[in-house]
Write a structure and sequence with these properties.
The complex is a heterodimer of chains A (599) and B (282). With 599 residues, chain A is mainly alpha-helical. With 282 residues, chain B is of the alpha+beta class. Chain B folds into 3 domains: 25 residues, no CATH class; 88 residues, no CATH class; 138 residues, NPCBM/NEW2 domain (Jelly Rolls, Sandwich). Chain B has 5 helices and 15 strands. In chain B, β7 and β8 form a beta hairpin. Chain B starts with 13 loop residues before the first helix and ends with a strand. The chains are: A mainly alpha (599), B alpha+beta (282). At the A-B interface, α16, α18, α19, α20 and α24 of A face α1, α3, β7 and α5 of B.
Chain lengths: 599, 282
């Protein structure tokens, strides 16, 4: 099968899978902000297209400025959410929530397709297929791919930029693509700013030999020359260096990337420096949200350096981790073997071989995605979603590991029992294919089981190493965030309202921002009225829900005081682990009967 | 070197066998790991008892429960499910207890082999109901002669403060505690004096900082100094990670004055929600 056809199929399957799984995922707190902002952004673009005074400062401020318009995040995905909502819901009648989430799902499909194509081009179709499948079957990433948020899209545009950079190493035309891709990444989320560090490091590695040669030539050229000749030679060296493929790609990213960002973000069309400073400053001074990790609540640096390592070990399927380790070992072994050959043959050791360049690229770009979270000062509250751009590298290494193991098995069987009839082919590699199929199926089946167990409360779920959701709770790993699990108690509350035969006032806790959207989308009936926030909301409520996170315990206590009971009436659980409790205000005790009149 | 077809098996040298097995090993590891992962993931939900098991356990407790008994659950994370089934037997005062010393009868309902720290004493019941282990402990209960939280309304309060003293249920160290909340002004001390209260052999208390968001945003510590009569008997400094910190001091039975001095340490110590509880025990 042609690679592009297979890539298209993988992309479509991924898209369909995400769309199906997101139906059971409640609205996350951040999505509510992005829905609203996206709709406003699209309104502005339509105003612009229709010449309705969109370009005056008041209009730009009104649509893009300030926290009300979420100016702390760039606009690409929000704009796509708004466009998708307008086109798919307004135009085609797709349900509203899905229509907002389609762009993320589509980009996740694109990511899987790109990973397949890139891996296939470098290492082979089997490696590409397994890598793509293992990327699809990452439970947390799949969850984020179903949200109208930025984290899964960031993985796609990040890897798209990496792939374009890679192509630019052999074709200067791709440098422009890399620049545009990087611009899209910048317009998606601020962690795109980390990517150049990985690419610059890679460009130094791949350009090392050439740089030494250029340097040697330059020294020869300027030896004993006049100052003017030296200057001209130095300039020629500089230009030659920058014209090299890897440098050109970086220049394109540096020049085209910001232009794309500015083009897509009208907020930057005036007071550009101040607005960029505000955008970056917001994230440099970001408040530290509460986050439970290994039994402790963390909301202030220094954070444990091992958060990204342990969290990754507990959230990515174990087989994928093991296969990635195997793949990494294979790559290191190949590099070591090539180096030994070079040394034996008296060649200059380049430090890295052509086959390992892409592996080095993956390693470096994944490293810059995850590295800041090892420092102990970077906010950890988003956990795996913040270093998700490292996941494609993990999947690709896993793909290499699975295929290598399968082929080794096939080769060993063929070697040990050469008289066995080849089951698939007479060409000699059928046994390898069969073994590869068996190993690949086993690994993917295990990852698929993890995915199935995780949905729809993937943030509560942990992998087999942790012991699933209960094991994660035992280990004091974060229960969830964003309040999406409140959707799971809506049927209970709806039935309570029906039984009561009246509207109920509900303290909606972490779902308070999502509640109006649930009602707009028809998920929550109008008989379940949000009672407001904090004490006032609790005190005026008939029912109260608490989304369980360690730092949210105080909401339980507020409710206990107001309701006079510690007993919930319903506890939503994920594999037995409590995620949302619902309390019902006990009826007021009947007044004591009046004393009987004396006779 | 590849073996010749038809002759390889008969002529297989041990080195070739060893090499072959080594090549099989990675795939076997992956296949074995996949099988383990599938089994473990599928088994994970079964490790947590369902509502029927909890109903059975709760029924067992209800048949022997006496008012004043303490019910605890382990591990902590199963607490909402435990309260769903037995919450009507847990008064607010028990849920927001200072500690468990005043309870002479403790019911522990636990899953997954976890234990509650309150479950101490002589165990006279231990039974498993479908994964929920019910244990009952009896031990001598501490006798409280004065509860300083309940008495705070009668105490004399001096010092610059933004709030308090208020006796209520507050979150301290992520747990509920019925305690006296005071917010001294930065670098100031609030003194609460209990005059002529009944004392036993020991004065036991706890202090901590309430409100997780204040603990995040303000990093300065708080301090509590406890005096009986003119003598300082305890000094406790608490920071954002101290949780609910215990102190204890011997006292002479009879009546006496107890002074609690609460300080927001440092000129930037704004919003230090110091919350304490103390009991004079016989």
């Amino acid at each position: 099968m042609r690679p592009w056809l297979m890539a298209t199929m993988l992309g479509l399957v991924t898209f369909a899978l995400v769309i199906v799984q997101q139906r059971d995922v409640g609205i996350t707190r951040d999505e509510t902000i992005y829905f609203a902002a996206g709709d406003r952004y699209v309104d502005w673009w339509f105003d612009l297209a229709h010449g309705r005074g969109a370009l005056d400062e008041a209009s730009l401020n009104g649509h893009f400025g300030g926290t009300n318009n979420n100016s702390e995040h760039p606009p690409l995905m929000k704009t796509l959410f708004g466009l998708s909502h307008r086109a798919l819901h307004g135009g085609l009648g797709v349900d509203e929530l899905t229509s907002y989430r389609v762009p993320t799902a589509a980009l996740h499909g694109a990511l899987v397709a790109i990973v397949y194509l890139w891996t296939t081009a470098i290492w082979g179709a089997a490696e590409g297929l397994v890598a793509a499948l293992l990327l699809i079957l990452m439970p947390r990433l799949l969850f984020h791919a179903g949200l109208a948020c930025f984290d899964a899209p960031m993985v796609a545009v990040w890897f798209g930029t990496v792939a374009a950079y890679w192509k630019a190493l052999s074709s200067r035309r791709w440098a422009i693509v890399a620049g545009v891709a990087f611009g899209l990444a910048l317009a998606t989320k601020h962690n795109a700013l980390l990517l150049p560090f990985g690419l610059i490091a890679h460009s130094i590695v791949v350009g090392w030999r050439g740089m030494r040669a250029d340097w040697g030539a330059w020294r020869g050229e300027i030896a004993g020359q006049a100052a003017g000749v030296k200057l001209r030679a130095t300039w020629r060296l500089f230009v030659r260096r920058q014209w090299r493929h890897e440098r050109l790609a970086l220049w394109a990213m540096a020049l085209v990337g910001p232009l794309v960002l500015i083009a897509l973000w009208p907020w930057l069309w005036f007071d550009t420096i101040a607005h960029v400073r505000g955008w970056i400053g917001f994230h440099l001074n970001h408040v530290h949200y509460n986050y439970e990790y290994l039994g402790d609540n963390w909301n202030h640096p220094r954070f444990p350096w091992h958060v990204p390592i342990v969290t990754t070990l507990y959230t990515v399927p174990v087989v994928t981790l093991a296969a990635a380790a195997l793949g990494g070992r294979v790559l290191v072994a190949r590099w070591w073997r090539d180096r030994a050959v070079q040394l034996r043959d008296g060649e200059q050791v380049s430090g890295v071989g052509a086959v390992e360049w892409p592996a080095m690229l993956l390693f470096l770009t994944a490293g810059v995605a995850i590295g800041p979270f090892l420092l102990g000062s970077t906010p950890i509250f988003g956990a795996e979603k913040h270093w998700a751009p490292a996941m494609p590298a993990l999947a690709i290494f896993a793909g290499l590991g699975v295929v290598w193991a399968g082929r080794q098995l096939g080769a060993a069987i063929a070697e040990l029992r050469p008289t066995w009839r080849d089951p698939l082919s007479t060409a000699g590699d059928g046994m390898k294919r069969l073994c590869l199929l068996v190993v690949g199926l086993c690994v993917c089946a295990a990852a698929a089981v993890e995915v199935r167990a995780a949905q729809p409360y993937a943030l509560t779920n942990y992998n087999a190493l942790a012991g699933g959701a209960p094991g994660g709770a035992d280990r004091g790993m974060n229960r969830q965030f964003w309040g999406h699990s409140a959707l799971g108690v809506v049927p209970f509350l709806t039935s309570e309202a029906a039984l009561a035969g009246r509207s109920l006032r509900v303290y909606t806790h972490e779902a308070s921002m999502a509640w109006p959207w649930y009602q707009k989308f028809g998920t929550v009936p109008s008989t379940l009225v949000d009672s407001g926030n904090e004490d006032a909301g609790v005190n005026s409520s008939d029912y109260a829900l608490v989304v369980h996170e360690l730092h949210f315990n105080r909401h339980d206590f507020m409710i206990w005081k107001a309701y006079g009971t510690v007993q919930p009436v319903f506890v939503l659980r994920a594999d037995g682990v409590p995620i949302v409790s619902v309390y019902k205000r006990p009826p007021k005790p009947a007044p004591a009967p009046a004393p009987a009149p004396a006779r | 070197m590849p073996a010749k077809p038809g002759h390889g098996a008969r002529m297989l040298p041990s080195a070739r066998l060893r090499s072959g097995l080594l090549r099989v090993f990675p795939a076997m590891i992956l296949i074995g790991l996949a099988a383990w992962e599938i089994a473990r993931v599928r088994a994970a939900p079964g490790g947590v008892p369902g509502d029927e098991d909890w109903d059975t356990a709760a029924e067992l407790v209800r048949t022997q429960f006496q008012p004043g008994d303490l019910i605890v659950f382990a591990p902590d994370w199963i607490d909402p499910v435990g309260r769903l089934h037995l919450g009507d037997l847990i008064p607010l005062d028990a849920a927001g207890r200072m500690d468990d010393a005043r309870f002479g009868s403790v019911w522990e309902l636990s899953i997954r082999g976890a234990r509650a720290p309150e479950a101490t004493g002589e165990m006279n019941i231990e039974t498993d109901t479908g994964g929920v282990t019910v244990r009952h402990f009896v031990r001598p209960a501490a006798e409280v002669v004065t509860d300083l939280v309940a008495q705070v309304g009668k105490a004399q309060v001096t010092g610059e403060r933004d709030r308090g003293p208020t006796a209520d249920l507050f979150e301290v160290g992520f747990a509920p505690h019925r305690c006296v909340l005071v917010v001294p002004r930065p670098d100031r001390t609030v003194t609460i004096t209990y005059r002529g209260i009944a004392l036993g052999k020991e004065l036991v208390g706890y202090v901590g900082l309430a409100d997780v968001f204040k603990r995040r945003d303000v990093r300065d510590p708080g301090r509590m100094v406890v005096s009986v009569g003119e003598q300082e008997v305890a000094t406790v400094t608490v920071d954002n990670d101290s949780g609910w910190t215990r102190f204890a001091a011997p006292t002479a039975p009879g009546t006496g004055d107890v002074t609690i001095a609460l300080t927001a340490v440092g000129p930037t110590a704004k919003d230090r929600l110091l919350c304490f509880a103390a009991e004079a025990r016989r």
